[in-house]
Specification:
The protein is α/β, with parallel strands linked by helices. The chain has 14 helices and 18 strands. It has a 7-stranded mixed beta sheet with strand order 5-4-13-14-15-12-16, with helices on both faces. It has a 6-stranded mixed beta sheet with strand order 7-2-1-11-18-17. Strands 8-9-10 form a 3-stranded antiparallel beta sheet. Helix 1 packs parallel to helix 10 and helix 2 runs parallel beside helix 10.
Length: 406
C-alpha cells in the first residue's frame, strides 16, 4: 500500500492551518511547525468575505463560520464629525457576491481549523528553518531544534517577514513601508449600540464593528513615520488622534486599557515575487503577497491560497497524484496574477482613504456621497472580481458525495 506524502507547514496561522487541513483531507500526512508556544494568534479580528467563506466550504468549515456573522444591518463610511458619507447594506453585498461578510476573532478561526487536524500534527514552540528546498528527485528538508523533517511538500506560511521567502528569493527587495501604522483592539463595551462603520479623516481612519460574542472590534490607522511609537502608551496616542471623533469612538477608547491596544506598522511587497514556489516549497499568504489591509483581503487571500494549493496537490504522488513540482507551478500560475492585482488595488485604496490632501479629501467625500445616493450597488463595484471568486473545486462534502459544484 502506498504511503501518504508528507507535507510540512511552517507557520500555524490561518493560512498555514487552512493548507494543513485541506491537504490532510486529501490524503497527505501533515506536520505543522509553529514557533510560538501556542497557536493562539495576536488578539485581533478578521473579516472574512464571501470569497474566503466559499474556500472554507471546501474543507467543510464555511457554514460553521457563517453562523458567527454578527452584522446583518446597514453600515457605511462616516466623517470624524459623524456625518454619513456612504451607506452600505449587508443584504445588498450578500446578494451581489453570494454570501455575507463575517467578522470574528482570529483565535476563533484558528481554533476551528486546528480542531480538524490530528493532535500529533501540531507542533508548537518549534521554530523552523528551510535547509533544502528539494527538487523533482529529492525531498525538501526543514530543521528545528528538535531535529530535521523530510518533506515531499513544504508550505511556507511564516508571515510577512518570511525567512523562507528570503531564502528562496534572496535578490528580491523585500518589504516596503506602506506609510501608515495601525492599532487594533477587541474588547467588551457594555451598553453601547452603533451601526458598523469606518470613519475617514485627514490621514487617519477608524473602524468599529460588533462581534457575535458581544465584544467590539475596533481598528485605527494613521500616517506616521516608520518605527514611531507613543511617548507614553498607545491608548493615549489613540485618544490624542481620535478622542474627539464621533460616538461610539470615545466610549470604545474609554473601555480600552493600554494593554488591550496592539500597534503595528504596515508593510507590503511592492514588487511581486517572480513565483510563489521553488523546488518543493510553496509560499502562502503574507509570505507570498503581503498587502495593505485597506481591502480587508490579507487573510482572505491566504485562505484562497491554501485551498488552491491543495487542489493542485489533490493526491500525493505516491498515491498516483500530480508530481509536486508540477502542482506548484500550477499553483503559482493560478495565484500570482490574482494576488498581485488585489495587492496593487489595496495600495491604491490606501492612497485614497489615507490622504491628508484637503482638496483630494473633498473630491473623495463628494464622490462617496453621490455614489451612496445612487445605491449600494455602485459602492460594491470595487469588490467585483474579489468577493465573487469561487474555488476551483466543489465543496469538500460534495466531493465526497460525488456531487457537482453548484
Amino acid at each position: 500500500m502506498a504511503q501518504p506524502g508528507h507535507a510540512v507547514v511552517i507557520g500555524g496561522g490561518i493560512g498555514g492551518l487552512t493548507a494543513a487541513v485541506a491537504l490532510y483531507q486529501r490524503g497527505w500526512r501533515v506536520t505543522v511547525l509553529e514557533r510560538s508556544r501556542s497557536l493562539e494568534p495576536v488578539g485581533a479580528g478578521i473579516s472574512l468575505a464571501p470569497n474566503s467563506l466559499r474556500a472554507l466550504d471546501v474543507i467543510g468549515l464555511g457554514d460553521e463560520i457563517r453562523d458567527l456573522a454578527a452584522w446583518q444591518g446597514d453600515g457605511g463610511l462616516r466623517t470624524p464629525g459623524g456625518r454619513w458619507l456612504a451607506r452600505s447594506s449587508a443584504d445588498a453585498a450578500a446578494r451581489r457576491f453570494g454570501g455575507p461578510l463575517v467578522l470574528l476573532h482570529r483565535a476563533t478561526l484558528v481554533d476551528r481549523l486546528a480542531a480538524r487536524l490530528p493532535p500529533e500534527a501540531l507542533h508548537t514552540d518549534a521554530g523552523a528553518t528551510l535547509t533544502d528546498p528539494g527538487d523533482d528527485r529529492r525531498p525538501a528538508r526543514v530543521s528545528t531544534s528538535g531535529g530535521e523533517w523530510e518533506a515531499d511538500l513544504v508550505v511556507a506560511a511564516d508571515g510577512i517577514r518570511s525567512a523562507v521567502r528570503a531564502a528562496l528569493f534572496p535578490s528580491h527587495p523585500g518589504l516596503a513601508y506602506s506609510g501608515f501604522t495601525t492599532w487594533r483592539v477587541v474588547i467588551p463595551v457594555p451598553g453601547v449600540e452603533f451601526a458598523s462603520h469606518e470613519t475617514w479623516g485627514r490621514g487617519r481612519i477608524w473602524g468599529t464593528h460588533p462581534l457575535k460574542d458581544g465584544r467590539v472590534y475596533a481598528y485605527a490607522a494613521a500616517m506616521t513615520p516608520a518605527g514611531h511609537h507613543a511617548p507614553d502608551n498607545e491608548k493615549a496616542e489613540l485618544l490624542r488622534l481620535f478622542g474627539d471623533w464621533h460616538a461610539p469612538i470615545p466610549a470604545v477608547l474609554a473601555a480600552a486599557r493600554p494593554e488591550d491596544v496592539l500597534r503595528h506598522d504596515v508593510h507590503h511587497l511592492a514588487r511581486p515575487l517572480p513565483a510563489f514556489h521553488r523546488g518543493r516549497v510553496a509560499l502562502l499568504g503574507d509570505a507570498a503577497h503581503a498587502m495593505p489591509p485597506t481591502l480587508g483581503q490579507g487573510g482572505n487571500q491566504a485562505i484562497e491560497d491554501a485551498i488552491v494549493l491543495a487542489f493542485h496537490h489533490a493526491r500525493p504522488r505516491s498515491s498516483g497524484g500530480t508530481p509536486v513540482c508540477d502542482g506548484l507551478a500550477a499553483y503559482t500560475a493560478a495565484r500570482l496574477p490574482r494576488t498581485t492585482a488585489i495587492s496593487r488595488q489595496a495600495v491604491r485604496v490606501a492612497r485614497l482613504n489615507m490622504t491628508s490632501n484637503r482638496a483630494l479629501m473633498a473630491v473623495r467625500d463628494t464622490a462617496l456621497v453621490a455614489l451612496s445616493a445612487v445605491g449600494p450597488a455602485l459602492l460594491l463595484r470595487g469588490f467585483e472580481g474579489i468577493a465573487d471568486w469561487r474555488p476551483p473545486q466543489a465543496p469538500y462534502a460534495a466531493v465526497q458525495a460525488g456531487a457537482d459544484q453548484q
